[in-house]
Amino acid sequence: MSTTRDSNLTQSIPAQWQIYPSIPTECPRRRDTFIAFAITNLVTMVLGLAVGCRPFIYIISCRMFGKKKRKNVYWYNWLPTWGLTFVGNVLCAVLIMRTPGYEHIRVADVAMLYLQRPRITLLALTTVTYAIVWKGEMPWIRAWVATAGAELLLQIMAAIWVVRAGEGYLNQRHILAIAIWEWVNAGLTAIMAIYIVRCWRNQVAHAEAVDEAAKYPNGFVMQNDFWVQNGFSERQAVPKVKRLTFRVWLILMVIGGLGYAGVGAHQNLGLK
């Protein structure tokens, strides 16, 4: 990537979006950047799966965290996800800043820029939540909900940064298009998070109904008619696992495409 800049282009985009070397140097290859980002995602995903497993946290915390039907189970799920992602972005930004020619780059700008790229932790949790049942419990269902909330928060933070950094430039069509793009991305994330919460609430209602039905004599067969007669819908009675997973994966793929396209749009304007 050449370090020669067209002055008109440089003046037409926000300073926070201009991430390029101040001295002639060779930019890192896109493949290397992608590999570094993939490694960060994998580490976050593995830690997210470990922290998100309620029985596992319950055991290693000496029964202090991860108790059933306790609110702290949500706190320890979404805070690490949000924190790991944010700290990981900051560390990547520090590495960029320490590269010769990039000393003038602000760490906060790089960290916020790469928040636009969605994480794969939610994809993994979407898969394991309904695929793995342990002793009649879905160990990752609370982490699934909490991580959806964390991802929504990260996307909103990125969208706000894009708009604030673009203040004074929004009268230009290409800058306005990127700002709208980011908020569409955040909106899709919100839709996905709401859908996940609804699925979680249906599952909670289903589990409570199972506990209540367990009071009946052994041999009582719990059919869908029983759930419907007691005010539960067919969805609450038998979760549509395959359809549910497909919908969430589809929304995540759209969000991922928008996120990477958004970063690519920044790169085409002079970012790397």
From TrEMBL:
The answer to whether the entry has keyword Transmembrane is yes
**Which keywords label this protein?**
Membrane, Transmembrane, Transmembrane helix
What's the superkingdom here? Eukaryota
Annotated transmembrane regions = 34-61, 73-97, 141-163, 175-197, 244-263
Question: What protein is this chain from?
Answer: Uncharacterized protein
